[in-house]
């Protein structure tokens, strides 16, 4: 059991004190937790002693909403995420197909949905480079899929195929599928036909994810979308030692079959507790209340400006969501509800309130993820109902998605009401931060920079967007540390004090002492998870 001491540091504990937060200059820890802080730490013998040279230390970051398997898997597929034109995507797909003649299906993840007008991508653009094999590309929003004609043929999509109730097969004026599929109901039949991820691929994905997340300063993550086959992948990765952080598995709740999933949820929680309790828990159930605004599937209280007959797509009937959330709450799971549009947020809050009434008072940690648009009448309900608002702060800037897809659909008034992190925090609600990686970067420092500036990190020159919603650096640090620890129900996490978890991050510079637009550039020198150094050194 090795003891580590870090001294000559700025140790930000995250513990409130008069006028700020308790700080120190040293700490000591091992796998059991933080052993001592300050003078007491300097007086302990240590197997490893680090002179930080004035660098910054705080509790390691936590990500309250991320997709590690998907993030780690993307680099094994056609490299479409970095392309800046439709032609570039098609060319990258064509090259990958030539280099991988053995691949029956050509896949890619993470392309930019704003590269085609209205986010509509056509099958013939892919047919030109791969006409004889199915091509399946998922956009960076992970709600939209672009396929070629061979894929449409294999899945049987024609002009006579009825629209699914929980998705959209985008069609042209003549009624023919164009190659863009929105939400599960439309693209799930495609993914059901693709070869399953192999164990080797899954281990490589979680190995890559573990390295990437640790290098960003993270020690704990909430996997926000876990299906049954993913559970096997997680357990295999932990057994093989390739995932060295901790994670909670958010078990996906299907609106079409949720009654039959309840026993599986409980059995999975028990299995994870037996096989991997030192690294994994499975205490969360994930719901998708709606889609995303960029594709017009976020559920809205009022119609979209560019489609006045549509209020988006709700994935659940309100009464059904009430019943499902109450059922998992009764089993002791924490509901984690994706809600983007203001109608979806209201429906999610209603379901959480219903569960509390039906099941009675108890300790619970319900979370609403994203909360992109919240109606005035619902702003205070987060605090009143004890709902954690999990924001992805990196999204709170004006970028091409806003210009090309979001703002035209929302109109000026609603465009200026997105990601109201400061407002909801000021009501007394707990906010936590996440990344939704690989939708966007998993680097907490990048998220903190945007939360503090409300500006793009790419130097595009735009001024602050909704500057009244900016947070202080310390408020953003709390959201990435103790805020997510609260979401996880981890009373030992998110702060530095004797007895707390030995989750520690060492940063080259103090993010409170640099220019706000330089925060993302701070180097992560070291990350420890339960006293084990998982990055640096």
Classification by helices and strands: alpha/beta
Q: Which residues sit in consecutive blocks of at least 5 with pLDDT less than 50?
A: none
Overall body shape: globular
- The helicity comes to 25-40%
Text of the CATH class of the largest domain: Alpha Beta
The biggest beta sheet, please?
A: 8 strands, mixed
Known CATH architecture of the largest domain: Alpha-Beta Barrel
DSSP strand (E) fraction? Answer: 15-25%
Number of separate helices: 17
CATH topology of the largest domain: TIM Barrel
Topology:
Blueprint: E1 4-17, E2 20-30, E3 33-37, H1 39-42, E4 48-51, E5 56-59, E6 61-66, H2 68-73, H3 86-99, E7 106-111, H4 123-127, E8 135-139, E9 144-147, H5 149-155, E10 168-171, E11 177-182, H6 184-193, H7 199-215, E12 218-226, H8 228-240, E13 246-252, H9 258-275, E14 280-288, H10 318-330, E15 334-339, H11 342-359, E16 367-370, H12 381-385, E17 388-391, H13 400-415, H14 421-426, E18 431-433, H15 444-453, H16 473-480, H17 482-488, E19 504-507, E20 524-529, E21 532-535
Parallel strand pairs: 1-4, 1-5, 6-12, 7-8, 12-13, 13-14, 14-15, 15-16, 16-17, 17-18
Antiparallel strand pairs: 1-2, 2-3, 5-19, 8-9, 9-11, 10-11, 19-20, 20-21
Helix pairs in contact: 7-8, 10-11, 15-16, 16-17
Structural overview:
The chain has helices at about 40, 70-75, 85-100, 125, 150-155, 185-195, 200-215, 230-240, 260-275, 320-330, 340-360, 380-385, 400-415, 420-425, 445-455, 475-480, 480-490, and strands at about 5-15, 20-30, 35, 50, 55-60, 60-65, 105-110, 135-140, 145, 170, 175-180, 220-225, 245-250, 280-290, 335-340, 365-370, 390, 430-435, 505, 525-530, 530-535. The chain is of the alpha/beta class and about 525 residues long. The protein folds into two domains: about 65-70 and about 200-530, Metal-dependent hydrolases (TIM Barrel), CATH 3.20.20.140; about 105-195, Diaminopimelate Epimerase, Chain A, domain 1 (Roll). The longest helix has 18 residues, at about 260-275. The protein starts with a strand and ends with a strand. The mean pLDDT is about 95.
């Amino acid at each position: 059991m090795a003891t580590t001491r870090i001294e000559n540091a700025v140790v930000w504990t995250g513990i409130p004190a008069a006028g700020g937060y308790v700080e120190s200059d040293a700490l000591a820890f091992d796998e059991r937790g933080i052993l001592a802080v300050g003078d007491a730490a300097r007086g302990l013998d240590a197997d490893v002693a680090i002179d930080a040279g004035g660098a910054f230390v705080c509790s390691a970051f936590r990500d309250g909403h991320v997709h590690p398997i998907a993030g780690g898997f993307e680099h094994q597929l056609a490299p479409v995420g970095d392309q800046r034109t439709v032609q570039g995507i098609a060319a990258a797909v064509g090259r990958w197909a030539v280099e991988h003649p053995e691949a029956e299906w050509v896949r890619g993840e993470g392309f930019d949905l704003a590269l085609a007008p209205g986010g509509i991508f056509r099958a013939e653009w892919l047919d030109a480079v791969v006409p004889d094999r199915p091509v399946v590309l998922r956009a960076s929003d992970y709600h939209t899929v672009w396929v070629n004609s061979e894929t449409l043929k294999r899945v049987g999509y024609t002009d006579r195929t009825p629209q699914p109730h929980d998705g959209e097969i985008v069609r042209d004026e003549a009624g023919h599928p164009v190659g863009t599929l929105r939400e599960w109901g439309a693209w799930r039949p495609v993914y059901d036909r693709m070869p399953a991820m192999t164990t080797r691929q899954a281990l490589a994905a979680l190995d890559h994810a573990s390295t990437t997340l640790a290098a960003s300063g993270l020690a704990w993550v909430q996997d926000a979308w876990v299906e049954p086959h993913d559970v096997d992948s997680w357990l295999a990765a932990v057994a093989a030692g390739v995932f060295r952080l901790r994670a909670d598995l958010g078990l996906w709740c299907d609106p079409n079959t949720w009654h039959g999933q309840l026993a599986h949820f409980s059995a999975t929680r028990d299995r994870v507790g037996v096989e991997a309790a030192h690294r994994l828990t499975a205490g969360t159930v994930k719901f998708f209340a709606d889609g995303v605004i960029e594709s017009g599937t976020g559920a809205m209280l009022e119609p979209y400006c560019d489609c006045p007959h549509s209020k988006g797509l709700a994935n659940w009937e309100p009464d059904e969501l009430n019943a499902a959330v109450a059922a998992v709450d009764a089993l002791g799971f924490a509901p984690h509800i994706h809600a983007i549009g203001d109608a979806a947020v209201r429906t999610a809050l209603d379901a959480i309130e219903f569960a509390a009434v039906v099941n009675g008072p108890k300790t619970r940690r319900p979370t609403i993820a994203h909360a992109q648009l919240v109606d005035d009448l619902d702003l205070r309900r987060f605090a009143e109902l004890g709902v954690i608002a999990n924001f992805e702060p990196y999204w709170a800037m004006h970028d091409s998605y806003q210009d090309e897809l979001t703002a035209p659909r929302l109109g000026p008034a609603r465009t200026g009401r997105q990601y109201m992190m400061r407002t909801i925090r000021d009501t007394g609600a707990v906010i936590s931060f996440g990344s939704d990686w690989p939708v966007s970067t998993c680097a907490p420092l990048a998220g903190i920079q945007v939360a503090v500036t409300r500006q793009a990190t790419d130097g595009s020159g735009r001024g602050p967007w909704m500057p009244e919603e900016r947070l202080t650096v310390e408020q953003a640090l709390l959201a990435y540390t103790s805020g997510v620890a609260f979401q996880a129900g981890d009373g030992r996490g998110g702060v530095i004090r004797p007895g707390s978890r030995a989750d520690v991050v060492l940063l080259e510079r103090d993010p409170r002492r640099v220019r706000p637009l330089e925060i993302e550039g701070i180097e992560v020198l070291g990350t420890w998870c339960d006293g084990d150094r998982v990055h640096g050194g």
